[in-house]
Amino acid sequence: MLHAIRVAAAEHNPLIPAPADLIWATLCFLVILFFFWKIGLPRFTKMLDERSAAIEGNIAKADEAQQKAESLLEEYTAQLADARAEAGRIREQAREDGKKILADLKEQATSEAARVTANAQAQIEAERQAALVSLRNEVGSLALDLASGVIGASLADDTKAAGIVDRFLADLEADEARKAGSNT
Amino acid sequence: MKQEIALLANAVHLLVPTAGVPPFVGPDIDEFFPPAVFFEGTAFEINRIMLIRFAAAIAILLLFWIGTRRMRVVPGRFQSVIEMGLDFVRVNIAEDLLGKKDGRRFLPLIMAIFFTVLVMNFTGVVPLMNIAGTSVIGVPLLLAVVAYVAFIYAGCRKSPANFFRNALFPPGVPWPLYILITPLEFLSTFIVRPFTLTLRLMMNMIVGHLLLVLFFTATQWFFFVVPGFVKAIGAGTLAFGFAFTVFELLIIVLQAYIFALLTTVYIQLALAEEH
């Protein structure tokens, strides 16, 4: 069957281009080349650029969001730590203050107590002095009265009487002091 | 088995013109030189194949005009298909071999070559067209010349001295061998390249077309001219015709790929600093 193909008829050599063949081939190709060069590919390239820009933009946006979130977290953590430290500081301060107040109060109470005690002692002393003076006077007049009664003469001369009493009392005191000295 | 051999003998016998039925006429080279349709006898003569080329060119323009008209960042289905085609050439041919920068420079040329060859090959299996626009020497020769000019331009633009030294005096060869190598290199680089590009494409398309015509005219002859049981052979030739149509589809894509790839490789070699 293959021998039925009659190869290369004499009038047409497929290896020799006819002018029309070349002319129309060139025209077609130039139009196609021009189209791809000036229209098709620029559109395609533009779209590809937009696509990569969009992808890069999204990635950048995501990065930015991530960074923002991270910095926020950091900030919050720092704030939290600050707050904790602050709370601790306040607690510590309160404890200190409490201690100080307590100490102050104690001191105040102690000094008050001391003051009260001192007052009381001073008063007691004053009263004792007063009692001593009045007692002395009374004991003196009583003794004089008694002595007057006993000797029957009035010891109206005050100067003399006072001298007797004072001597008596001084004797008494000296006696007592001696007794105390021998006792010790 | 015996019967089949007898059938075959009968069929072969029938092929002989003296068998009493009209003889089988196979396709010949005149298939590629149909009568003129317009401008007969001038340099602008237009025949059926030229019309098919115009149709192919218009198809390319329409397809990619519409396909790239409103390109979205997020592609639809049609745009995805168009992008796949464009990206095949852009990424797998141009950028793979030439890198981003030079790939972008030569991309329009490579893309125009690829799609011209692809679609003009494809008309060979389109019903009613049934002949490849590349099966007549005009288109393959033109594209080969374009590729030739492109790689020489690329080499001379970059560094003429470097280009010719790499092409004619490959480095790393002892100098006496240049007496032998340089003429061979000159022949292979500057003479043979355009011819192999032209002939590879054109002959593939011519043979593909002749085979398909052979199988389908034979089918027709067996079915409608030959009498009796021998008609059954027509089923076989039809099956072969179908198989070769599928094979032809592969050849169509492959030849377009090879043509664009070789063009790119030539440009790459011309741009290379050293081989």
Summarize the SSE layout with pairings.
The complex is a heterodimer of chains A (184) and B (275).
Chain A: H1 19-151, H2 158-183
Chain B: H1 2-15, E1 36-38, E2 46-47, H2 48-69, H3 77-122, H4 138-158, H5 160-168, H6 178-224, H7 233-271
Antiparallel strand pairs in B: 1-2
Question: Which descriptors would you attach to this protein?
Answer:
heterodimer; A: mainly alpha; 2 helices; B: 275 residues; two-stranded antiparallel sheet; 2% strand; globular
Describe this structure in words.
The complex is a heterodimer of chains A (184) and B (275). Chain A has helices at residues 19-151, 158-183. The model of chain A is unreliable at 1-10 (pLDDT under 50). Chain A is mainly α. Chain B has one domain. In chain B, strands 1-2 form a two-stranded antiparallel sheet. In chain B, helix 2 runs antiparallel to helix 3 (77-122) and helix 3 packs across helix 7. The mean pLDDT of chain B is 88. Classes of the chains: A mainly alpha (184), B mainly alpha (275). At the A-B interface, helix 1 of A face strand 2, helix 2, helix 3, helix 4 and helix 6 of B.
Could you say which overall geometry of chain B the principal axes of the C-alpha atoms support?
Answer: globular
Strand content of chain B: under 5%
Per the principal axes of the C-alpha atoms, what is the gross shape of chain A? rod-shaped
Q: From the helix content, strand content and strand pairing of chain A, which structural class follows?
A: mainly alpha
> How many structural domains are formed by the residues of chain A?
1
> Radius of gyration of chain A in whole Å, from Cα?
67 Å
Concise description?
The complex is a heterodimer of chains A (184) and B (275). Chain A has 184 residues and is mainly alpha-helical.
